[in-house]
Amino acid sequence: PTPVILDGDPGHDDAINILLALASPELDVLGIGTVFGNVGLEHTTRNALVTRELTRHSVPIYAGADRPLVAPRISAEAVHGHSGLDGPHLPPPQRGAEAGHAARFIIEAVRARPGEITLLPTGPLTNLALALRLAPDIAPLIRQVVWMGGSTDTGNWTPAAEFNALADPHAAHIVFSSGVPLTMFGLNVTHQAIAHPARVQAFRNLGTRAGEFVAVLLEFFAEHHRERYGWDGGALHDPMTAAWLLRPDLFVSRSMYVEIDLTDGPSAGRTVADVWHVTGRPQNVQVVTQVDADGFFALLVERIKRYP
Ligand code: BDR
Ligand code: CA
């Protein structure tokens, strides 16, 4: 199996990515890092813990950064609710997070298995940026990073910027300029996978605790998307990162040069993508452009079905 480290800010779609990865024997999930983002670090860590308990998996969870490197902190209670995982009622977690910072965990894991580990960040890139600054030697040892964030077109938090990019643009810059092989799942592709009611029903029809958990998450997540975009469901961003490892045939991608706008002003945090190669600069990002949304949801249902 492919050794992976998840790192996110659960978050409805982050939680579903955790379930997808832990249900998949093709992936060996070595650990899960948490980061501030959708809500504060205490909540995102708790949400990772309660999601793990639903799976009965013993994967270690490490809390990471509670704030961005430089930018002011933003959060997304409007999308994910006060807890960051509003909707389902879950018992408090029985087991806590491990001692030690998520960035330290990344450093130690990558050094222990040079060239092997894939990182799947689905929130602000702060933990990975900290790891790269604390231990620059790990950059050539990371097999690849598959990140949900950014966009080749419009943003969702400002007209120009996607939430995960805007939440820590300097961290994103560190990762994008690190030379680590990077795949980007931006809004340009994640907005192609809407969890409309028929797709939600497929999870509920499983008749399991995990199926119901996912259905309730998606129903809560749909509310913001209905209001803001007029869509009949939420865009299922984060689980595309694990899905890419399991079924790359569901996606179309292209290499291009992408850099983060670090200036202040209306384009701050934008992932400026050189779609037409006008700069002639070396292509540093594999940008995913299309998804077979039916195939993606079918994969998710089939994997969630494996839980009791
Ligand atoms: C991203 O922001 C968060 O709200 C979601 O979890 C996803 O990672 C989408 O912009
Ligand atoms: Ca997220």
From TrEMBL:
UniProt keyword Hydrolase, yes or no: yes
The entry's keywords: Glycosidase, Hydrolase
Transmembrane segments: none
SUPFAM superfamilies recorded: Nucleoside hydrolase (SSF53590)
Entries under Gene3D superfamilies matching the protein: Ribonucleoside hydrolase-like
CDD domains the record matches: nuc_hydro_IU_UC_XIUA (cd02651)
Domain Inosine/uridine-preferring nucleoside hydrolase: 4-297
Domain of life of the source: Bacteria
This protein's record includes keyword Transport: no
PANTHER family: INOSINE-URIDINE PREFERRING NUCLEOSIDE HYDROLASE (PTHR12304), URIDINE NUCLEOSIDASE (PTHR12304:SF4)
Protein name: Inosine/uridine-preferring nucleoside hydrolase domain-containing protein
